[in-house]
Structures are given as C-alpha cells and as structure tokens.
Amino acid sequence: MAYAIINTGGRQYRIAEGDTIDVDLLDVDPGKTATFGEVLMFADGKNVMHGNPLISGAKVTAEVVEQRKDKKVIAFKYKRRKGYHRTVGHRRKLTRVKIKSISLGTKSKTA
Asked: Which residues in the chain come in under a pLDDT of 50?
C-alpha cells in the first residue's frame, strides 16, 4: 500500500489514496480540488523516497468534502485560596479532504 507524508498547516499527516483526513482550514470551497505540494516522504511497499526536506515535483491532489469545526476544547485556570478561576475555550476550524492521487512528478500513482 503506497503512502505519503505531507506537511500542511504546520502539521504532518500520513496519507494514502482514498483516505479522508481533517486538516487546518483551507480557503477552498467544498467539492473543489486542493493540492498539497509539501510532500516529505513517499513509500510504495518496496521503495522509500524522502526529500531534503521536500520531494521536488511531488504533489498530492485531494477533494474538499466539507468545512467543519472540531470538538470544543476547554481550558480551566485556577489558583487555590485566591478566588481566581477562568474558563476559556475554542473550536478549531477544519477542512475535511479525501485524497484522490499521489503524484511524484514524472511517474504518478492514481486512484
């Protein structure tokens, strides 16, 4: 099974064709295509190719499924005997993408 490691939004993701992953918010409408150009590594079972730091010419094509929000994260600050407590929280904005193909420039692996 071929897979790649990509970098987007300051995080690294291990992906394979057909996978559905949540990444940080992308400015792409649902139903459109997103392209990730920062491919760090590619492996197809017997060969492993890694970049320094990126593989030149490699890209991953994905279809944007939806824009959504993550679960709520609550941070509670408290100091004992001081009467101090604060509750703050947030929900990360995410984009759900379905991986269509992994391309290595000259040769490509398509779905």
From this structure: 111
Q: Give which of 44, 51, 52, 48 is closest to 109, Cα–Cα.
A: 44
DSSP characters over 54-93:
S-TT-EEEEEEEEEEE---EEEEEEETTTTEEEEEEE--E
3-state DSSP: the chain helix, strand, coil percent, rounded to 5? 0, 60, 40
User: pTM for this one?
Assistant: 0.82
Spatial CA neighbour of 109 closest among 43, 25, 10: 43
C-alpha span between 84 and 16 (Å, rounded): 48
Task: For residue 100, give the amino acid letter.
Answer: K
Residue 111 to residue 107: CA distance in whole angstroms = 14
Exposure on the CB side of residue 99, measured as CA atoms within 13 A: 24
Coil, strand, or helix at residue 45?
coil
Q: How far apart are CA 91 and CA 74, in angstroms?
A: 9
